[in-house]
C-alpha cells in the first residue's frame, strides 16, 4: 500500500477541503445512494468483489456497512470535498478514499495509513443497487458438486505453511464458509460455485481475501488463496470430516524451568507495568497478546472486553500487550487507544513494540516462541501460568467457537474459585 504518513493524510484532507471550498459555488456536494452496493477491488490483476450497504442521506449521518454472509461491519463516513469521502476502517490503520462520480458510481482506493509503510494501494470501483457478489442474476451455471462440509487444505508456498481447514456451506450456487488455521480464522467468506469452479471473497476492514479454485473429477479441490496483495498460496483440498488443526493449547508453552511469565512494558501513558505490581497480586490474570492490525486479535478483544466487564469484581485482572506496525509509543497510543474506545476495554493496555513475532518472543522470554497474534495466557492467583491458547477462532466457526467459550468459562470459574 502506498507510503503515507499521518501528516500526509492531514495534508491530503486539507488540500481536498481547500479544493472543495474553491469550487463550492460551482458544484453541489454529491453523496451516495442509500442501499446495497457492489464494489470490485483489483488485486494482482484479479477482480475481487465485495458488497456494502449505505444508510444515511448525507455524510454527517451515514453508516457504511461491509457485508460478508451473515456478518456486518459498520464504519463512519466523512466528507472531505464536494465529491470525495473518507471511510476509516475503525481500529485498523487503513481507510477507503472514495470519489463520487456524476453518474453515482464510486472510484477510489483502499490505503494503509501506517506512517512510512510501503506497498501498493488497492484500487476499486463500486455501483449502487447491485446485490450480487460474483455472478449477475440469471447468469448462473448449475453447480457440478455440493462442496458443503469440512475440507483438509494442503498449502503450498515458498515458506513452510501449516495446513488449514475449510468449513464450507453451499446453497445452490451460493457458497459461504470460513478457513481456519493455527493462528485463527478468515472471518466469514461469501462466494459462488459455477459448474466445477468456485470463488470466495471477504472484506471486513483489513485487506480483502480472495479464493479461486476448481472441483476436480475425483471431487478434490485445487485453487489459490490470496490475503491482500503479497500473501498468495496455492492449495489442494480433500473432504475430511475428521480433520482437525493442532491443539491450540499445546502450541505455545513455557520453556523448561519457567513457571511464571515476566515482562516490564509501558502502558499508553508511558508508565511501566509488571506482573509484580500490587494490582495483580493474588488475582487471576489474563494476558492477551495482540495487534490492532490483526483481525483475529480484534475478534478476541470483542470476546474478552465484555467478559471482563462482567467478571472484573471476582478477583480477576486482564492485560493486553499490543505489538503495532510502528515501534513508537505515540503511534501505539493512537492505535491502541482506538481499540480501547471501540470495545470499551476496562483493563490495562501495554505497548510491546513493533509487530514482529521475533520481537514478541524477546519481550516474553519465558515462552517457547511467539507463534501467533493473538495468544492468550491465563495466570493463577499464585502468579503461575496455567494455560496458553494460540490464535482465536470466532463465532463463524460454529462448534469450535462454542467449545472455546464453554471451556474458557469453565476454566476461569475454576481458577477464580481457587485459594492461594
Automatic annotation (TrEMBL):
Record-linked SUPFAM superfamilies: Thioredoxin-like
Thioredoxin domain residues: 254-417
Key words of the record: Signal
Keyword Ribosomal protein listed: no
Molecular functions (GO terms): antioxidant activity; oxidoreductase activity
Pfam families: AhpC-TSA (PF00578)
Signal peptide: 1-24
Database matches in PANTHER family: PROTEIN DIPZ, THIOL:DISULFIDE INTERCHANGE PROTEIN DSBE
Protein name from the UniProt record: Redoxin domain-containing protein
Amino acid at each position: 500500500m502506498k507510503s503515507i504518513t499521518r501528516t500526509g493524510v492531514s495534508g491530503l484532507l486539507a488540500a481536498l477541503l481547500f479544493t472543495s471550498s474553491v469550487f463550492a459555488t460551482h458544484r453541489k456536494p454529491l453523496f451516495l445512494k442509500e442501499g446495497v452496493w457492489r464494489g470490485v477491488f483489483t488485486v494482482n490483476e484479479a477482480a475481487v468483489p465485495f458488497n456494502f450497504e449505505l444508510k444515511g442521506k448525507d455524510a454527517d449521518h451515514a453508516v457504511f456497512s461491509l457485508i460478508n454472509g451473515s456478518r456486518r461491519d459498520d464504519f463512519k463516513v466523512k466528507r472531505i470535498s464536494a465529491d470525495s469521502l473518507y471511510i476509516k476502517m475503525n481500529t485498523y490503520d487503513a481507510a477507503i478514499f472514495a470519489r463520487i462520480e456524476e453518474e453515482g458510481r464510486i472510484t477510489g482506493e483502499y490505503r494503509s495509513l501506517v506512517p512510512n509503510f510501503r506497498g501498493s494501494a488497492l484500487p476499486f470501483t463500486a455501483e449502487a443497487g447491485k446485490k450480487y457478489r460474483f455472478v449477475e442474476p440469471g447468469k448462473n451455471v448449475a453447480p457440478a458438486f455440493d462442496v458443503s462440509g469440512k475440507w483438509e487444505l494442503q498449502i503450498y508456498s515458498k515458506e513452510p505453511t501449516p495446513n488449514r481447514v475449510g468449513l464450507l456451506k453451499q446453497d445452490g450456487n451460493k457458497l459461504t464458509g470460513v478457513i481456519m488455521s493455527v493462528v485463527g480464522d478468515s472471518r466469514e467468506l461469501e462466494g459462488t460455485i459455477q459448474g466445477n469452479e468456485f470463488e470466495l471473497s471477504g472484506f471486513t476492514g483489513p485487506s480483502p481475501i480472495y479464493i479461486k479454485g476448481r472441483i476436480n473429477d475425483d471431487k478434490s479441490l485445487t485453487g489459490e488463496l490470496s490475503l491482500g496483495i503479497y500473501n498468495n498460496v496455492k492449495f489442494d483440498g480433500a473432504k475430511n470430516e475428521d480433520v482437525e488443526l493442532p491443539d491450540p493449547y499445546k502450541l505455545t508453552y513455557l520453556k523448561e524451568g519457567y513457571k511464571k511469565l515476566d515482562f516490564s512494558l509501558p502502558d499508553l501513558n508511558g508508565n511501566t507495568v509488571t506482573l509484580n505490581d500490587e494490582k495483580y497480586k493474588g488475582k487471576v490474570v489474563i494476558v492477551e497478546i495482540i495487534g490492532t492490525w490483526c483481525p483475529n486479535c480484534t475478534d478476541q478483544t470483542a470476546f474478552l472486553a465484555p467478559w471482563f466487564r462482567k467478571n472484573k469484581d471476582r478477583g480477576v485482572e486482564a492485560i493486553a500487550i499490543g505489538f503495532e506496525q510502528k515501534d513508537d509509543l505515540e503511534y501505539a497510543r493512537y492505535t491502541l487507544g482506538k481499540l480501547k474506545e471501540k470495545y470499551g476495554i476496562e483493563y490495562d493496555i501495554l505497548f510491546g513494540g513493533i509487530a514482529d513475532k521475533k520481537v514478541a518472543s524477546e519481550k516474553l522470554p519465558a515462552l517457547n516462541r511467539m507463534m501467533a497474534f493473538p495468544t492468550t495466557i491465563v495466570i493463577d492467583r499464585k502468579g503461575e501460568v496455567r494455560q496458553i491458547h494460540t490464535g482465536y477462532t470466532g463465532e463463524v466457526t460454529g462448534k469450535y467457537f462454542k467449545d472455546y467459550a464453554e471451556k474458557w468459562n469453565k476454566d476461569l470459574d475454576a481458577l477464580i474459585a481457587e485459594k492461594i
